[in-house]
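Board notes (copied after class):
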Amino acid sequence: MSVPTPGMVVIIGSGPAAWTAAIYAARANLEPVVYEGEPSRDMIPGGQLMWTTDIENFPGFPESVDGQELMQRMKEQAVRFGTRVVGENIASADLSTYPFKLQPSWSDGITARSVIIATGARANWIGLPNELRLAQNGGGVSACAVCDGALPFFRDKVLAVVGGGDSAMEEATYLTKFAREVVIVHRRDQFRASRVMADRALTNPKIRVEWNTQVAEVLGDEFVTGLQLRDTITGRERELEVGGLFVAIGHTPNTDFLHGQLDLHPNGYIKVFAGRTCSSVPGVFAAGDVIDDYYRQAITSAGTGCMAALEAERWLSHHGVEEAVSPVLETAETQPALTAD
C-alpha cells in the first residue's frame, strides 16, 4: 500500500447521515472526504432511499421528493462547500493507531484525524429476483411501512407483510391505517414477536395471517400484482392477489469492515454513548442507521449526521488539529462535552 493521503475528517457512507455530516464538516473547514461506496446486489451509493420513489415525510418537500433526487441534492450541497467524494467502499480500517488508517477497495490508503461512520443498515430481503427488481424500480415492494405505507399507491389495497417478529407486527398494524386488508405471511405456526405485539396484530380486524406459508415468488411486471405462496408443510403452491409487499424480516448494519474494532450491540449496531454519537474509540463517531435499529428514518439519520460532525469538530478543536493524540488517552465518557455557541 502506498503512503496514505492525509484527511482531516473521513466520512464513510452516503445516506442522509453521511451527507449531512459532510455539509457541516465542510462548512467548518474540516476538509471532509466522503467514501460513498460502490454498487452491489443489495446496496447502492445513497443508501436505502435510493429505492424509494416518493418521500412525503422529509421536511421542506410539500409535494414529496424522489429518494434519488433527495440524495443527489444532499450530495451536491456537500460538494458545493468543498467535500471531496470518492466512489469506493472502505474495505478495512485500523482504529488502534492515530491518525486512523483506512484502506479503500482499490486505491491508496488514507489517514484521518477523525472518522464518521455512516454506513447505514441494509434491509434483509427474501432474495427473490422479482422482489429485488420491483423494490429497486418502485414497483410496490418496500422494507419500510412508515416510509412508504401512506403513499397513494398503497391506499385501499390488500397489502402483504412478510415476517413474524415485532417489526412485522408494527408494520402490519401501521398499514391498517391505509390498506383495505393486511395479510401477514409467516413461515411458522406462531409468531416470534412479543406477546403484546402479536396480540395487537391478531386482534386487529383488518389483519389476517397466512400461517406455515412462505413467499415463493413476487408476481407482476411493472407493479406487484400478487404473490406465489408455498405451504411450508405440504409444499403446495397457490397465488394471493395483493397490491403491495412489505418485507419485515430485519436489517443488518453495515459494520463488517470494522472487524470488531468498535464496541457493538449484540445485533451488530455501533454503540454510542451518552445520547451522542461518540463510539468506543475517541475521535471515531457514528451516525444514521448504523446506530439506530428503532427509528430508521431519513430525518433522524440526518440529525445524527449533524451531531457527529459537530462532535468531530469539537473533538479536533479540543486536541488541536495537528496534534497526534493517542485515542487510548481518553474514553468515550471523557470526550469533550458539546457547549452552546
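Comment from the instructor: Residues 298-319 form the longest helix (22 residues). The domain at 125-247 is CATH 3.50.50.60 (FAD/NAD(P)-binding domain).
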